[in-house]
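Researcher: We plan to redesign the surface later, but first we want a full-length starting point. C-alpha cells attached.
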C-alpha cells in the first residue's frame, strides 16, 4: 500500500511537470491508481465488518468498483480519441450512484420510523435538485457551448449531489462527530466534487494558474479520503444534546434554503436569451424541488400528528392506571373500616361504577347452593338469586378462573342481560379454595374492557374475597396481606409498609426499580427518607405524623432521588392500619411513578404554546403575555413591544403563497 501511495505521488508530480498531452495521461493514470487503492481499502474493510457496518462498506466498495472501471475507460479513451470510451466512462461514472444509494439505504434502515425515513429521502432529493439547478443556471450555457466540458460537469454535479444527500443522512442518524468515518467521507466527496468543477472550468476555456494538474490531484486526494472514511466508518451515534439540536436545525434549514432558490431559478428560466434546453432543465428542477418539499412537509405533519396522538394515548393510559390504582386502594380502605357488610358491598359496587367507569356492576354471594345478589349498580332489575349454572357466570363458577370477554356476542355462553352490553369481566371470589361468590362487571362502551381492567377487578375481587373469608376480627391481617399482594402482583405500584416509628418493614421490587438501588441495598436503611428530595422531607414527615394522630389516609407527591442522581416523581396514597384500640399498627404507602405522565403533560403544554418548527412562542403565548402586560393591577405603566419584520418577504408570499 505504501508503494502504491508513492507511485501515486510520482504520477501526480509528472502530471504537474509534463506538458499536454502527456500530462493528461499522467493525470488519468494517478486517478485510476487512486480508484484502485480506494477499492482495495474499502474491500478489506468490508471483509472485517459485520451487520450494518458490513452492508454500508460493501455498497461503498461496489461504488469503487464502478469508479475504477470508469477511470480505466477514460484512460483508454486517451489512446483512441474518436472511440466511444469517453462517453461510456461518463455513463459508468454516473452509476456510482448505485453504490451511494445502497449505502444510504443500508445506513438509514431501522434507525428511524418509516415516515421519518421517507422525510430524509425527500430532504436529500430537495437538496440534490437545488444543487443541480444552481449548476445549470450558472454554467449550463457554457457547457452546451463547449461539449467537451460536459463530462467533468456531470461528474462534479454527481459528487456534489451525493455530498448534499450524505450530509442530510449523517445529521438525521446523528453520525459520530469526529474526523473519521462519516465526516471524513463527506470531506472526500467535497474534494472530488470540487476537483471536477475546477476541471470543467478549465475545459470550458477559462485559464487558471497552475493548469489542470491540481484539479486532477484534488480528485485523487478526495478518492483516497473517501476510502479512509470508509475504512473507519461505524454506525455509532452521537447522543450529545447540542449536536442533536444543531443537526435538527440544519436539517430544517437546508431544504428551506434550497426552496428560497426557487424564485431565482424560475427567474433564470424565464430569460429568453438562454438556451431552450437550459430553460427546460431549470423548470424541471424547480418543479422537482417544489414537489419534494411539499411531500416532505406532508410526511412530517403526518409523523407529528402520530406523535401527538401517541402522547395523548400514553397520558390517558397513565391517568387510567392511576385511577385504577387509587380505586384499588379505596376498596381496601372501605373493607378495612366496615368489613364485608351489605353497606360495604354497596360501596364497592358504587366505587367500580363511579371511579372505574363500569356501567354495570354486581356482587353475588354464594350460600352453598345458589348465588344471591349482595350489591349491584347499573342494572334495572338485577337477579335476586339464581343457581349460577349458565352463562359466563356459570363458566366462572365451574372453572374458578377470572374471565375477560372482550366481545360477548361472540361468546356462546353469554346470556342476554342488560341491553347494549359489549364486553364483560367475571371474577370468582375465592379464599383458601372456598368459593364465596362472583364479582361481575359489564360494559356498553365501544372500547372493550382490557387486561388492565381485568387486573384492577381481580385486585378488588381478591380484597373482597379476603374480607368475606376472614371476617371482621381478622380483617386487618387480611387487608395487610391481600391489599399488598393485589397491588404488588397485579398493579405493579410501589408499596412500602412502615411501623408506627416510620421504620420500613416491607417493600416490593418496584421500590428498587424506581430508586436504582438493589433490594439488598435498600434493606440496609431503616427508613427510605434518604431517597426523598430534601425539599419534600417535611411534607413526608407531616403525612406520617397525620397517620400517627388518627387520620385513616393521606395523599401527597414528592420526588425520589435515584442512585444515579436523577429524579422520579412519585404520587403516594398512604393508609393507616389500626390495632384493636385504634392506634396505628402499620402505615401502607402505595406509590405510582408519574414522571413520564408529568413529562408528557409538560411537552403537550409546550407544544400548545410554541411553534413546532422553530421552537419559538406562538400567537397564543404572545396574546397571553400581552394580556398580562396590560393588566390594570400592574404598578408600572411602562410597556415595550419589539416588532421584527422580514424585508421583501412579501415577494415570497405573493409568488409562492403563505403555505410556503
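Model: Full-length starting sequence:
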Amino acid at each position: 500500500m505504501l508503494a502504491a501511495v508513492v507511485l501515486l505521488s510520482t504520477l501526480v508530480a509528472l502530471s504537474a511537470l509534463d506538458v499536454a498531452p502527456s500530462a493528461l495521461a499522467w493525470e488519468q493514470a494517478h486517478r485510476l491508481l487512486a480508484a484502485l487503492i480506494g477499492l482495495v481499502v474499502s474491500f478489506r474493510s468490508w471483509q472485517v465488518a459485520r451487520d450494518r457496518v458490513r452492508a454500508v462498506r460493501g455498497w461503498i466498495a461496489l461504488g469503487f468498483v464502478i469508479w475504477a472501471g470508469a477511470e480505466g475507460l477514460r484512460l483508454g479513451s486517451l489512446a483512441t480519441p474518436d472511440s466511444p470510451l469517453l462517453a461510456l466512462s461518463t455513463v459508468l461514472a454516473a452509476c456510482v450512484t448505485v453504490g451511494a444509494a445502497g449505502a444510504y439505504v443500508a445506513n438509514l434502515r431501522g434507525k428511524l420510523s418509516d415516515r421519518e425515513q421517507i422525510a430524509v429521502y425527500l430532504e436529500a432529493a430537495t437538496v440534490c435538485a437545488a444543487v443541480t439547478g444552481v449548476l445549470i443556471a450558472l454554467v449550463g450555457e457554457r457547457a452546451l457551448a463547449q461539449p467537451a466540458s460536459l463530462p467533468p460537469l456531470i461528474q462534479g454535479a454527481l459528487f456534489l449531489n451525493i455530498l448534499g444527500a450524505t450530509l442530510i443522512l449523517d445529521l438525521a442518524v446523528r453520525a459520530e462527530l469526529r474526523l473519521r468515518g462519516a465526516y471524513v467521507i463527506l470531506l472526500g466527496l467535497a474534494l472530488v466534487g470540487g476537483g471536477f468543477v475546477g476541471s470543467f472550468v478549465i475545459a470550458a476555456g477559462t485559464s487558471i494558474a497552475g493548469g489542470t494538474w491540481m484539479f486532477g490531484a484534488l480528485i485523487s486526494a478526495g478518492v483516497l479520503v473517501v476510502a479512509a472514511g470508509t475504512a473507519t466508518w461505524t454506525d455509532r451515534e452521537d447522543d450529545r444534546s447540542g449536536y442533536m439540536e444543531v443537526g435538527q436545525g440544519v436539517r430544517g434549514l437546508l431544504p428551506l434554503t434550497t426552496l428560497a432558490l426557487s424564485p431565482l431559478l424560475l427567474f433564470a428560466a424565464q430569460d429568453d436569451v438562454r438556451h431552450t434546453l437550459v430553460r427546460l432543465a431549470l423548470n424541471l428542477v424547480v418543479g422537482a424541488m417544489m414537489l419534494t418539499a411539499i411531500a416532505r412537509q406532508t410526511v412530517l405533519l403526518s409523523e407529528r400528528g402520530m406523535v401527538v396522538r401517541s402522547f395523548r394515548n400514553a397520558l390517558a393510559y397513565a391517568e387510567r392506571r392511576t385511577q385504577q390504582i387509587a380505586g384499588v386502594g379505596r376498596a381496601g380502605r372501605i373493607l378495612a373500616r366496615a368489613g364485608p357488610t351489605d353497606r360495604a358491598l354497596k360501596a364497592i359496587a358504587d366505587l367500580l361504577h363511579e371511579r372505574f367507569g363500569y356501567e354495570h356492576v354486581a356482587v353475588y354471594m354464594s350460600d352453598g347452593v345458589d348465588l344471591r345478589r349482595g350489591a349491584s349498580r347499573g342494572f334495572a332489575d338485577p337477579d335476586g338469586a339464581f343457581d349460577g349454572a349458565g352463562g359466563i357466570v356459570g363458566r366462572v363458577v365451574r372453572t374458578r378462573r377470572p374471565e375477560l370477554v372482550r366481545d360477548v356476542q361472540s361468546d356462546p355462553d353469554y346470556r342476554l342481560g342488560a341491553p347494549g352490553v359489549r364486553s364483560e369481566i367475571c371474577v370468582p371470589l375465592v379464599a383458601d379454595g372456598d368459593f364465596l361468590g362472583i364479582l361481575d362487571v359489564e360494559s356498553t362502551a365501544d372500547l372493550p374492557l382490557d387486561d388492565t381492567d381485568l387486573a384492577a377487578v381481580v385486585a378488588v375481587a381478591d380484597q373482597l374475597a379476603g374480607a368475606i373469608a376472614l371476617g371482621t376480627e381478622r380483617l386487618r391481617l387480611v387487608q395487610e396481606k391481600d391489599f399488598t399482594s393485589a397491588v404488588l402482583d397485579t398493579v405493579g405500584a410501589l408499596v412500602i409498609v412502615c411501623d408506627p416509628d416510620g421504620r420500613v418493614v416491607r417493600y416490593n421490587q418496584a421500590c428498587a426499580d424506581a430508586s436504582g438501588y438493589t433490594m439488598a441495598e435498600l434493606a440496609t436503611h431503616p427508613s427510605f427518607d434518604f431517597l426523598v428530595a430534601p425539599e419534600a422531607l417535611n411534607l413526608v414527615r407531616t403525612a406520617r405524623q397525620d397517620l400517627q394522630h388518627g387520620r385513616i389516609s393521606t395523599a401527597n407527591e414528592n420526588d425520589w432521588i435515584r442512585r444515579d442522581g436523577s429524579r422520579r416523581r412519585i404520587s403516594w396514597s398512604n393508609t393507616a392500619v389500626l390495632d384493636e384500640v385504634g392506634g396505628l399498627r402499620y402505615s401502607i404507602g402505595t406509590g405510582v411513578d408519574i414522571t413520564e405522565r408529568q413529562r408528557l403533560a409538560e411537552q403537550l403544554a409546550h407544544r400548545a404554546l410554541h411553534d413546532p418548527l422553530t421552537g419559538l412562542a406562538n400567537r397564543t403565548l404572545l396574546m397571553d403575555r400581552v394580556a398580562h402586560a396590560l393588566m390594570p393591577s400592574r404598578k408600572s405603566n411602562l410597556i415595550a413591544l419589539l416588532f421584527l419584520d422580514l424585508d421583501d418577504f412579501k415577494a415570497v408570499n405573493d409568488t409562492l403563497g403563505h403555505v410556503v
